């Protein structure tokens, strides 16, 4: 979950400070340009020069918090953002960044608290509600996650990720028909495979597979893999769907592809063992069962 969240964060962290940039601080302007180019190390170096000369220049402090987050240095990002918040406690953007840094360092309560404040300070910011929903979802607080995702969609109807996570939340609440509709609404907004997200397709396919709709599930697993050919879990689930339709040879090929991508995937070894048993290859099946047990037993 953290990896996918990080991807979304890096894609969506606003550079709103650019509009407030002080032209008299050239290194800050330079840092902004580096940040827009995702050149985080040079951005950090430029910001260090700014803060060495002007330690109280708050736009540079907040931007450095963003840069440190993008470098994966979450504890440092949090510390820097908190320095900004000591001077600017009512900044929704800073509260959001602090919440995300708390989340990435494993502090769920800190994340919830800061993102709640961010959503109150910036009630029109869809991102704050989306990330708050992610925190609630991770904590299995599904009713509050549902409310947060619904608000995010109301503020940003084109948010594919919010619709996808709304679907997951509805699944968790056993509202399967509504979950399917949420995934389909996300898919409707999707672009071409090379630009799109695999997750609405994958999640819808898993739901259909669980409901016994293997043929439809296969279609959506293939769409997910068109967007991310290396998504091992989609390959494994696709093989399960193919096996359910007695397409055993194709299922085996797909599982072998999954194992080439991730040789230590316990789920892939388990499913190919089941498949080989079904195909009456007990010795090969036993080998994969043993590998599965070795991986699962520390």
Describe, in short, the structure shown.
The protein is 76% helix and 0% strand.
Fold topology:
Blueprint: H1 2-12, H2 26-36, H3 40-53, H4 58-70, H5 74-87, H6 92-104, H7 108-121, H8 126-138, H9 142-155, H10 160-172, H11 176-189, H12 199-210, H13 214-227, H14 232-244, H15 248-261, H16 266-278, H17 282-296
Helix pairs in contact: 2-3, 2-4, 3-4, 4-5, 5-6, 6-7, 7-8, 8-9, 8-10, 9-10, 10-11, 10-12, 11-12, 12-13, 13-14, 14-15, 14-16, 15-16, 16-17
Descriptive report:
This protein is elongated. By secondary structure, it is mainly α. Among the domains are: 1-122, Serine Threonine Protein Phosphatase 5, Tetratricopeptide repeat (Alpha Horseshoe), CATH 1.25.40; 214-298, Tetratricopeptide repeat domain (Serine Threonine Protein Phosphatase 5, Tetratricopeptide repeat, Alpha Horseshoe), CATH 1.25.40. The protein has helices spanning 2-12, 26-36, 40-53, 58-70, 74-87, 92-104, 108-121, 126-138, 142-155, 160-172, 176-189, 199-210, 214-227, 232-244, 248-261, 266-278, 282-296.
